[in-house]
Amino acid sequence: MVFTIGSMREMRQQRTGVRDAARLAALPGVRTGARRRTHAAVCTTVAQYAALCGWSVVPGTRAARGGGACSCGDPGCRVPGAHPLPLAEEIPAGTPRDQAAKAWARVPGASVLLPVGHSFDVLDVAEASGHRALARLERMGLRLGPVLLTPAGRAQFFVAPGAAAELPHLLYRTGWDDALLDLRCLGPGDHVTAPPSDHAGLGPVRWLREPLRDAVSRPLPQPGSHPPEARLLLGTLAYVCHRDRVHL
User: Fold this and answer.
1) Is residue 27 one of the residues assigned to a domain?
2) Which of 7, 80, 210, 246 is paired with 54 by a 20 to 30 Å CA distance?
3) Overall number of domains in the chain
4) On the CB side of 139, how many CA atoms lie within 13 Å of its CA?
5) Residue 26, SS3?
6) Which H or E element spans position 58?
């Protein structure tokens, strides 16, 4: 086999390029092929949230695993890894999937935050109570919205917006206003972390009840559609929370 000077030079350049690429891939912060695929999957999920679920989506900060420092750089951050990025642009509810995916591609590494008070409010209870309440509500045949599970051990039920303002009145009407309940409501100004993101560096958020689980048997939700009224869930949630607290 005969090698020309030109072909030898090309082979050396190719070997050097392979070595340089390997060194670059090993550097901290460089996105590998797996990270690129993961980011592409997140872009697709965000697009579904905006286009199919009718939710606004906001790029959020991240915290080091175990609940370390926030990526915003503020050492006194009150909610590390669980607040919007500074100057982050919200992807509005109803944004077409291709546009939402392109917008999210510009913020690699951001966590997926859903602003509360726009399309939904959130009833937040302990995870164990949430599991029991969900089973009861499903047996009752109620139309339910999505339910999140956080790594902090909370279950978050999506309900129609306005629940946070109405909660004291609703508890009074149902007779639970004097009870000590591990139940609160998130409303305007709050955010929840959505899958597949980690929450505050504590671990991944999961769906206990997925947003599009009924897509096969029912039409997909349209942008602006609302989850159930809080009053339909509150009695069961309050009862289970109270019972669990008494039996602690």
Assistant:
1) no
2) 80
3) 1
4) 7
5) helix
6) strand 58-60
Report whether 126 contacts 150 (CB < 8 A): no
Domain contains 174 = yes
Range of the domain at 50: 34-246
Q: Residue 225 — pLDDT band, cuts 50, 70, 90?
A: low
Which residues, listed in sequence order, are joined to residue 91 by a DSSP beta bridge? 57
Other CB atoms within 10 Å distance of the CB of residue 149: 19
CA angle 155, 183, 127 (to 5 degrees): 25
Task: Name the residue type at position 172.
Answer: Y
The number of residues in the chain equals 248
* Contact (CB, 8 A) for 143 and 233: no
Tokens for 75, please give them.
Answer: 């050492």
Beta partners for residue 235, in sequence order: none
pLDDT band at 248 (very low <50, low <70, confident <90, very high): low
Dump pLDDT digits (tens) for 145-190.
999 999 999 999 999 999 999 999 999 998 998 888 999 999 999 9
Task: With a cut of 50, say whether residue 126 has pLDDT above it.
Answer: yes
Burial class (CB in 10 A: 0-12, 13-18, 19+), 66: exposed
The closest alpha carbon to 117, from 169, 160, 166, belongs to 160
CA 81 → CA 66, 72, 126, 235, distances in Å?
Answer: 11, 8, 21, 33
pLDDT band at 27 (very low <50, low <70, confident <90, very high): very low
Q: Does any domain span residue 86? A: yes
Asked if the structure places residue 187 within a domain, the reply is yes
In which band, very low, low, confident or very high, does the pLDDT at 13 lie, cut at 50, 70 and 90?
Answer: very low
> At 113, is the secondary structure helix, strand, or coil?
strand
Tell me how far CA of residue 50 lies from CA of 122, 125, 148, 198, 218, in angstroms: 18, 26, 17, 19, 19
